[in-house]
Amino acid sequence: MPLKRKIQELKKKREEVQMGGGEKAIEKQMAMGKLTARERILSILDEDSFNEYDLFVEHDARDFNMDKKKLHGDGVIIGTGTIDYCPVCIFAQDFTVAGGSLGSMHARKITKIMDHALKMKMPLIGINDSGGARIQEGVNSLAGYGEIFFRNTISSGVIPQISVILGPCAGGAVYSPALTDFVFVVDNISKMFITGPEVIKTVIGEEISMEELGGARVQSEMTGNAHFFAENEKDCFEQIKSLLSFIPPNNDKKSKVYAPKDPKPEFKVENIVPGDPTQPYDIRNVIRGLVDNSDFFEVQELWASNMVIGFGRMNGETVGFVCNQPLVLAGVLDVDSSDKAARFIRYCDSFNIPIVTLVDLPGYLPGVDQEHAGVIRHGAKVLYAYSEATVPKVTVIVRKAYGGGYIAMGSRHLRADFVFAWPSAEIAVMGPEGAANIIFRKEITTAEDPEKMRKQKVKEYKEKFANPYVAAAKGYIDSVIEPEETRKVLLHCIDVSKQKQISMPRKKHGIPPF
Ligand code: HXC
After folding, report:
1. What does the pLDDT read at residue 409?
2. Residue whose CA is closest, atom 26 of ligand 1?
3. 233 and 279 together in one domain
4. Residue 167: pLDDT band with limits 50, 70, 90
5. Could you tell me the distance, in angstroms and rounded to a whole number, from the CA of residue 236 to the centre of ligand 1?
6. In whole numbers, what is the pLDDT of the chain averaged over residues?
7. Any residues with Cβ below 6 Å from ligand 1, and which?
């Protein structure tokens, strides 16, 4: 056969396979407001940059009449491409082909691109739209997921792994994302659960919709499984590109450096924080007053909002921010906010991103609920993460730093490299009201006018402890600075920390309070 005919044949074969589950299934997919797997890949990647592999892979299942079924590409597309000219590996499950379910060849395609990503040290983006393990393939599909989970784990901390949930994802299709660094969800489209509504109805007899069980809002606001919430797929892809602009492609390389830009004048930090320590304010505006162009890219914005984490740039280079949020629960540390901060600190540490901590919190949240939910174990994760992190760590105490909160939030004692305090800082074992009631109880209860005595003792306590100078006198903080000096001081500290090197005691790995 002449080569031209062979080329024609190849083109025809390609077209046929690229139709995935066929016209009807694609129409169904579109009716749900979803793009096809191929459209998704092409929308995320730079134009004309996609190189596909394993297009002609076929499944090898024989049971349950599977030998009579053709599953194009075995329900997943894999390849390499670029985003903003940076190379990435990508896969997208195709729900139009057997519900994107994962059989052994489907898994082999995914693990092939995962191996490639690790070998070449490129970010991996996985678009998940799958009913989970392909039921007809039994243990072979389970084995496939095991292979994926193993690779997710060994790649962790070496290359960024990004998961996008773009359909009803069940079982393994959500456990793999849970092992990755960042999970993106889209309103009305993403659903994540281990067992779907049908199984729940059969086993427990409860009826619940997919949306209520594990929709995008549930995963962003309640469980913390998702890191980024998008209104639609296009918005989601833009958010992925923004994230990639902040993070390095692997643990050996630095993030891309951008031209430095001053923060916008409307975010003058001195005007953002109220003098009265009981008044709330949005810590994100302080961050915006410190970072280049006031551009702060928040992570897990909708979950555990008493803690704010995310990326910004200082002098064009990426910095990770870990900050209490006085707007929500006065910025306390609790079970969820501890998990949120600890994981992010470890992410920044793995990828050599300096950490800036802004402190304003009354301590750990007291209460039976928190104690029983394991605030000891979860809170300890923050202590562990800060102590273990060897990247440059700079801490600024903005207002309150009480009790365990003072120690946990990047204190000198957990080896912050630089610690500063604003003149508004209050550093003590606990807040003045609570402290006075405890240590001056006798004087207050036996006084002629207990309320007057209480106020006087609170005032005495405030004068003694509710300031940064006791800590400054001990050298626990390096300097008391004016709010407007903060950006300059941070830029300097990050600059002089570039050669930081720390050697830890020899060990296989630590045992964090997971
Ligand atoms: C084989 C599957 C499948 C699966 C869906 N399909 N899930 N085929 N194995 N796991 C097929 C359907 O048979 C159907 O094929 C097509 O995909 C579309 O599915 P629908 O049910 O019509 O779609 P929808 O109504 O949107 O519901 C989607 C769904 C539901 C919620 C995902 O299909 C579902 O509950 N599937 C099973 C989920 C599950 O329990 N998976 C196993 C998890 S255990 P046709 O031919 O009709 O188009 C697991 C093990 C790993 O993953 C655990 C790791 C810890």
Report:
1. 98
2. 168
3. no
4. very high
5. 24
6. 95
7. 98-99, 101, 131-136, 142, 145, 168, 170-172, 175, 196, 198-199
Do both 357 and 409 map to the same domain? yes
CA of residue 501 to ligand 1 center, whole Å: 49
Let me know if residue 509 belongs to a domain.
no
**How large a percentage of the chain has pLDDT more than 70?**
100
Q: Are strands 51-53 and 76-83 parallel, antiparallel or unpaired?
A: antiparallel
Residue 282 burial class via C-beta count within 10 angstroms: exposed 0-12, middle 13-18, buried 19 and up: middle
pLDDT at res. 495: 96
Q: How far is the CA of 77 from the centre of ligand 1 (A)?
A: 18
What is the rounded distance in angstroms from the CA atom of residue 461 to the CA atom of residue 456? 9
Task: Report whether pLDDT(97) > 90.
Answer: yes
State which of 70, 93, 101, 102 you would mutate to test the pocket of ligand 1, scoring each by most atoms of that ligand within 8 A of its C-beta.
101
**Closest atom of ligand 1 to CA, residue 197:** 35
Helix H or strand E encompassing 9: helix 3-18
Residues 103 and 211 in one domain: yes
264 within a domain of the structure (yes/no): no
Last residue of a domain, one of 191, 214, 246: 246
Query: Does residue 282 belong to any structural domain of this protein?
Result: yes
In a domain, 104, yes or no: yes
Please tell me the predicted confidence (pLDDT) of residue 69: 85
pLDDT value of position 98: 94
| Predicted TM-score (pTM) of this structure | 0.95
Which pLDDT does position 135 carry in this prediction? 92
Is the same domain home to 376 and 318? Answer: yes
Ligand 1 closest atom vs CA 194 = 43
| Residue 99 Cα: closest atom of ligand 1 | 17
DSSP 157-177: TTS-EEEEE-SEEETHHHHHH
Per the structure, the count of domains in the chain is 3
Query: Nearest-5° angle of CA 306, CA 307, CA 312?
Result: 135
Range of the domain at 445: 432-465
Same domain, 210 and 294: no
